[in-house]
Amino acid sequence: MSKRISILGSTGSIGRQSLDVIAACGMSVAALTANSSVERMEEQARQFKPELAVLMDEKAAADLRIRLADTNVRVLSGMEGLLEAAAIPSADTVITAVVGMVGLRPTLAAIREGKRIALANKETLVCAGQLVLEEAKDYGAQILPVDSEHSALFQSLEGNKDRGEVKRLILTCSGGPFYGKTREQLQGMTREDALRHPNWSMGAKITVDSATLMNKGLEFIEAMHLYHMPPEKIAIVIHRESIIHSLVEYCDNAMIAQLGAPDMRLPIQYALTWPKRVPGPANPLDLWNCGPLTFGSPDLETFRCLALALEAARTGGTAGAILNGANEAAVAQFLAGKIGFLEIADRVAQAMAKVPVVREPGLADILEADAAAREAAL
Ligand code: NDP
Ligand code: MG
Questions:
Q1: How far is CA 311 from the centre of its chain?
Q2: Among 19, 98, 174, 331, which residue has the most ligand 1 atoms within 8 Å of its CB, making it the best to mutate?
Q3: Domain coordinates of the chain in residue numbers?
Q4: Most buried of 40, 79, 175, 180 (most Cβ within 10 A)?
């Protein structure tokens, strides 16, 4: 069970919910990091008293240093600071809750210190899953999933001793805010429309990914890496209610699932307390009033991002890094009002067609694929 924790991305949706869990479970904080949210970071640092607070942005870090001058909190900036927070000796666990590929180097730094990784930053696994898992094995670092679907799979696999008995993993997908819409209807969807998720309140990037269904595609690749499963042994089912968080189907056709209210504090907490369970702040599920549970198939023709991600999953090598880099660039453009909703998939397809895939990539190949994909997408 975790006792002292570093959070990379503490001011975001996962970061703040992680602090709720840490406070409720009596754990302590070694380091906090964010990009530029000075005020929120100051508040968090005063409340949780970490040794180290890091802001990626230099100017924001200088401001934070002045604001925290009356405390013992050391303030750093940039990637150097992020790496120091990830490897800080007093922490046994690092929660990776930054958004995007920027999380890769700090995740590797934490792994090399043998820390438990509570992994929310799925982009890291999509880009460099094989590398990250090999390093985790070499350094004896545990990786525990924070993503609700992967936590559900993890919990549904806990009783299983022989992976050969697993027929397939089934990821549930809410369908997002645009479920049931046609391509014509999606044409004019704006930033505001995309940011209205029916079941979860999350950061802007992942909320857009949930609207395009790219999020489920990223999760598909994340599951392949975390559970060593080939793409043909993973399926996606639309489940609008987000009550069943994912399932494992075994060779005898038994299905084991994990259910819960849609509340990220539960999977965050389990990544910290595993193999124990303790009472925590997550909302209980009221089975008697949650209504019927429904299931359906995803529409891969309307939601092209999901089809592109499945293609990248089957291709392997740097295809995941290309998919992800192009998507990060395209989503940033969509959020800035520069491209339309359907153009996100166009940009990703464009990058996948243009950037060559490297088999068995090292870190340099992955970083190169990411940069080339971002350029090709713009
Ligand atoms: P948010 O956008 O809410 O938060 C992101 C955090 O990362 C903030 O602390 C932000 O700081 C920091 N950050 C952003 N960009 C950078 C950067 N370039 N360098 C350093 N720090 C940066 O995201 P979420 O919490 O929603 O998501 C975080 C990760 O967790 C993502 O990978 C997402 O896919 C995954 N995830 C999220 C879920 C959710 O429910 N939110 C569910 C499952 C997975 P600042 O505040 O200063 O911008
Ligand atoms: Mg998820």
A1: 20
A2: 98
A3: 4-145, 150-372
A4: 175
- What are residue 28's phi and psi, to 5 degrees? -120, 170
- Cα separation of 106 and 124, whole Å? 10
Q: What is the CATH number of domain 4-145?
A: 3.40.50.720
Q: Which amino acid is at 97?
A: A
Model pTM score = 0.98
Q: Is the CB of 11 under 6 A from ligand 1?
A: yes
* Ligand 1 atom 20: residue of nearest CA: 35
Q: Give distance in angstroms: CA of 292 to centre of ligand 1.
A: 32
Tokens linked to 310: 């499945």
Say how many C-beta atoms besides its own lie within 10 A of residue 190's C-beta.
11
Is 120 touching ligand 1 by the criterion CB < 6 Å? Answer: yes
Q: Is the CB of 109 under 6 A from ligand 1?
A: no
DSSP 296: B
Domain 150-372 has CATH 2.60.120.260: no
CA 274 to CA 374: how far, in whole Å? 37
SS3 of the chain: helix, strand, coil, percent, to 5: 50, 15, 35
Residue 195 neighbours by CB distance under 10 Å = 17
Using CA atoms, how far apart are residues 95 and 101, in angstroms rounded to an integer?
15
Specify whether the CB–CB gap between 225 and 153 falls below 8 A. Answer: no
